């Protein structure tokens, strides 16, 4: 291996693959980037924001065959493709970070229930490290295979884990999560419904019959909750290109309702994540004081998507509806950075012995 990081990005034509390339281009430790695709167009034509970067597309099968010369391979492919490629890549000695859903469940039956297909590499599921760096940092240095979470899931997990692990939530009540994703979350394949003329000034609800990320959230939140949880996940695309906005309503245990307040919640969240850059660098808790009266619209008390676009940060705000005993959590991130490519590079940094913020310290636009 060379002194620098040699990285491949298989599935380099989509929004996520392009974003991985963008972040790797700005990483001081990366010396070679091999985006791979079966796409016929040039790299510059596919990703005009990276015009002149010097990158070009390589054949995905040729990159896979040369995996012994690579340090890390990012799989930005549709579900089903990563489980086909990962065994050969790992056998060759490359570290693999999968940004699809293929290795997010430890149980192949859970994967089948969520995605409707059989898992073809179930022997790899037990060793895959779930890639929320903030929660599984200690497992990453020895990991061969990392399963990067999806954008809805990582934003919701970061927003809800402190509340659940503190034992504040009523275990008998569902966790209600309303999530709005930018239109890049729908992928690059053209569809009339996500054209600018259709989405601008509107909202596009989808998968209300049961979103495929709900089982993943239930699986991952059951640990901090100390038992099974039910997630009621409602999703929509909003009239913006990138970003995730999550609002969660969590019923508080009856015996704790008189004790809980916004201040108590903020104390819990800052204990978990720290304040500012102290603690978890990429998770920032909005602790702006309440201004005005009970019915005043104090917008700055909660984070907004615009504050995180282009960054690897997740901003979190909390409040408490004392009359109904419901804790409210607002969690926002850029779906292409913290929700995908940024968290993948963050995981790569820890896996390969770099400071985990390397190449990722840019604030929101």
Automatic annotation (TrEMBL):
User: Domain Semialdehyde dehydrogenase NAD-binding: where?
Assistant: 6-143
SMART domains listed in its UniProt record: Semialdhyde_dh
Q: EC? A: 1.2.1.38
For this protein, the record's InterPro entries field holds: AGPR (IPR050085), AGPR_dimerisation_dom (IPR058924), AGPR_type-1 (IPR000706), NAD(P)-bd_dom_sf (IPR036291), Semialdehyde_DH_NAD-bd (IPR000534)
Q: Does the keyword Oxidoreductase apply?
A: yes
Query: Mind listing the GO molecular function terms for this protein?
Result: N-acetyl-gamma-glutamyl-phosphate reductase activity; NAD binding; NADP+ binding
Reading the lineage from the top rank, the first entry is Bacteria
Q: Which family does it belong to?
A: Belongs to the NAGSA dehydrogenase family. Type 1 subfamily.
Q: Where in the cell is it found?
A: Cytoplasm
Q: Which GO terms fall under biological process for this protein?
A: L-arginine biosynthetic process
Looking up NCBIfam families in the UniProt record yields: argC
Q: What does this protein do?
A: Catalyzes the NADPH-dependent reduction of N-acetyl-5-glutamyl phosphate to yield N-acetyl-L-glutamate 5-semialdehyde.
**Does the keyword field hold 4Fe-4S?**
no
| Pathway stated in the Swiss-Prot or TrEMBL entry | Amino-acid biosynthesis; L-arginine biosynthesis; N(2)-acetyl-L-ornithine from L-glutamate: step 3/4
Q: Taxonomic lineage of this organism? A: Bacteria, Bacillati, Actinomycetota, Actinomycetes, Kitasatosporales
**Could you name the active-site residues?**
151
Q: Which organism is it from?
A: Streptomyces marianii
Q: Name one GO cellular component term.
A: cytoplasm
Name the catalysed reactions: N-acetyl-L-glutamate 5-semialdehyde + phosphate + NADP(+) = N-acetyl-L-glutamyl 5-phosphate + NADPH + H(+)
| The protein, known as | N-acetyl-gamma-glutamyl-phosphate reductase
- Enzyme class, one word? oxidoreductase
> Which Pfam families did the record assign?
Semialdhyde_dh, Semialdhyde_dhC_1
Keywords, in A-Z order: Amino-acid biosynthesis, Arginine biosynthesis, Cytoplasm, NADP, Oxidoreductase
